[in-house]
Structure prediction request, 809 residues.
Amino acid sequence: MAEELTWKDLEVGNIITEAGNASFRKTGDWRTERPVLDKEKCIKCALCWIYCPDAAIKPSEEGYYEADLYYCKGCGICASVCPAGAITMIAEEEK
Amino acid sequence: MATKAVKFGEKLVTTKEFLAEGHSFCIGCGEALAIRLAMKALGENVIMAMATGCDEVTTTPLPYTSWRVPWMHTLFENTAAEISGIEAGLKILVKKGRMPERDIICVAMGGDGATSDIGIQSLSGAFERGHDFLYICLDNEAYMNTGIQRSSATPYGASTTTAPAGKFSMGQITRKKNIAAIAAAHDIPYIATACPSYHLDLMEKVRKGAEIKGPAYVHILSPCPTGWRYKSDLAITIGQLAVQTGIFPLYEIEYGRYRLNADPPELKPIEEYLKLQGRYRHLTGKQIERIQEMVNEDYAKLKEKVAAFPL
Amino acid sequence: MSCGSYNDDSGGGKMSRRVALEASHAVAEAVRMADVDVTAAYPITPQTHIPERLAEMVADGELNAAYIPVESEHSAMSTCLGAAAVGARTFTATAGQGLELMHEVVYVASSMRYPVVMAVCNRALSAPLSVWGDHSDAMAVRDTGWIQVFCQNGQEAFDLTLWAFRVGEDPKVLFPVMVHLDGFTLSHVTEPVILPEQSEVERFLPRFQYPFALNPDKPMTHGAFGPPEIYSETKLAQEVAFRNSKGVILRGWKEFGDIFGRSYHPVEEYKTENAETLLLTMGAYTETAKIVIDDRRNKGESIGLISLRLWRPFPFEEFRRAVKGAQLIIVFDRCISFGLGGPVFSEIRSALYDEEPRPKVVGIIGGLGGRDMSEEDFDYVINRGREIAEKGSDRMLETVGIR
Prediction:
């Protein structure tokens, strides 16, 4: 974490040499709702995958596309664009 | 086995994410999506310069970065000047034999503030000098990062924190500055408007802009749930309505000739677009009528240009 | 007027030549010999002869560089940063208002550690508009974290520009360097300048190898933003590295002396042996002051002259050593820092505050907006300086040549 770094730990010019090192950040903690996929209805069109602003939907086995809950912020765009109504947003507290 | 690409009809879209997951764009941010799509069209052989704004602060809090491509940020109004230096630097190093020749796309990205207001001078300079670069404007129609203040790209009638709707004010009273037209006035080879709701069209335009020699400008409408005040799941719907009502037409200008990418036989009434957004909530019927008039006027003007200089 | 400003007049290599060059053109010549890759500059009086000469050199194939005719100074510095970020050797020049316009980018250049070299033809700041010389533009960028030197003559304009690349680009430094030339009084005067051979320059100045060049093969992020949890650490790191650049600054001058035969030091001590009184000046007017010092010493006066060549990082060590034994230092400033007085004066006082014994320090301001300083004016400065030291001053501000 930033708070643990001293002035000596910084690279010259504060340049960050490790690409994409912010990907440890668990934005899934932001959610109040999360998407649930009904595989029966899913037509594997990948629109949910392409329209996710957080790249939190990933291709899974058998060609489905599922939310990576580590990152998913629960915006609901995937549910709103799904042409087959296969995604439902449920409250995060629900199990 | 990790999927390398996803097929959309004839198109293959890479599954690589050049903007890493875990960024802190708002929930449902249209701009984050626009950038994600643009990066997929650009690939990894890029050098990016980015302006201060939403894009920069959500992706690079020292010591972390969400970027998986070479990326540079200095200030707010100088991104086009910065990319000019990157482009010219690369060219001369190759010319002097200090770097092997290779295809590196020079891309500059900035919000509507960085592009249309504080950065218009450096943008104009870079266009005029003819550097080989692509400038992408992420237009969320206000200075969103600093708190939803008005920009010259804020549309007529929208409420922002510095042009708010009030007892004696209807919000923005000026018309949205047509930056694409300003770019066109510089006679650059390629200009396009795009919207993340039309993802393949957006990616195609970014790819074209990247490949063409000389300056290219792609203006992407970026729906913003926080500033436009709509539910977080509506970015795609709102983007579609923006195009279908004609308030944000999709077109290209290649070497001065126009192509209208989507020309519905009848435009949807603008009210359908406005009513979904809290920033327009205060508008009276008369004001909405006026907006409809303006949309019709602007659309007609565009169609005249398309007719006069068809691609 | 260039004799006596460097300690070894051996004149360099066998093929070096002595030519008459306008100082601006001497700077351009150094840029050419340094084989700069990118130059982006916006014309502003009195700097214009530098970008004009560079454009000519590029047009005639004498300089193989990208000449970018940017549309403002803010863009000039921004473009240089972009070029430096991909590993190009970059140069720009400006003056007065131009330096002010690019101010935020100047600060960024140091914070992001890009070794851009910039010549500044010191010009008075508006308002009222003035194209003529003084140090107000330089004083406004004191805190920006650039290595800064002041030139006295055309030879120094050439030498220090060349040296600037060597120091700024050194992997242990990576800081931008500003070379100050008094506007018109130096920038536009033609003087004899000894130009070295290209092979000597190549021995002195290695190729620029920027370790963090933007490249798709190794994607890096330049310019992340600094939340409160980390900003302070970045500034401390910058200051530590900036102070540590002193080692390379001195080494650069030593190497310069070894190869070209002219040695430079952070503080020039001109006839200061056993001097009770020292006059302190910076820049081209120093040479006029030296004539007055020579004159007075010939008459038996115990007086000498100190000139700060290195302005930033402030040469505390060399300065304190140089003034040891003096009883009075008279500082001549070419700038008013409003509400404070002479900026150099206040820094000199501060630098000597802890010294035991502490000399008296007085300050007099003149030479603003192109106002010349004659030998008589420097006579006045010295006499009045002594008067103030003895009897104090009841004036709000001590000035010379201002009605």
Observations:
- DSSP finds eleven helices and twelve strands in chain B.
